[in-house]
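SAMPLE LOG
Freezer: B-3
Tube label: C17
Construct: single chain, 227 aa
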Amino acid sequence: MTSIYQKALGNDFEKLHPQIQKRFGFSSKDRIASIGRGIMQEVSYGNLYTLPFLYIGTWRNIMFPQKGKNIPFTIENYAYLDRFGRQTVTWVRKYQFPDKVRRFDATMVYSDKRQKVVDYLGTHQHLAVDIEFSVAENGGLRLRSGEQRFYEGIIGFKFPMLLSGYAEVCEWYDEEEERFKISVEVRNKTWGMLFRYRGAFEAEYIPVRSEADIPKDVKPVREEVRD
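STRUCTURE (predicted):
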């Protein structure tokens, strides 16, 4: 079974660096997970008027109003079938600031209806974001976010981008340093840069023999069937 990223990129998946193919090429059938550990050289946010966006994000582990340099972090990517039978990959990032641990949680699925990956942000999958993937010149995986939709109960609407941001992400493999590197920036067309981070990490691949091997805290509290 192909991964959701292979499905999204099609033949272009083969253009990725082999280490990036390995990190993004597994599904629940492969019974492995990728656990990254490293250092964020920089975690920062925009002007003070962006803080309300970030404080709201802390309610559901999306973004946070904290900055720093050389912050230890982990990233946990587990592949599993959600309760709707969709191939799902967790993206749980934990940042160890001196005074507290901050999180940025997401789960990605492939939407057959939209013919692309949809990223559910936060602990309750309230915000569904369309994702476009491409191959970077350095063999990395480039991600750009698009339309966003908010779901809660019977409520569902296109989320106004005045209150959110577009993400630009690139993850690649540095052969000289033998480490993965990542760069993320979230911007709002009106308010400018909201949030960004850049860092490097090493990835370990661990066995996932059954659903019980997936930590409960990396899965969303609530799953949303609408994409």
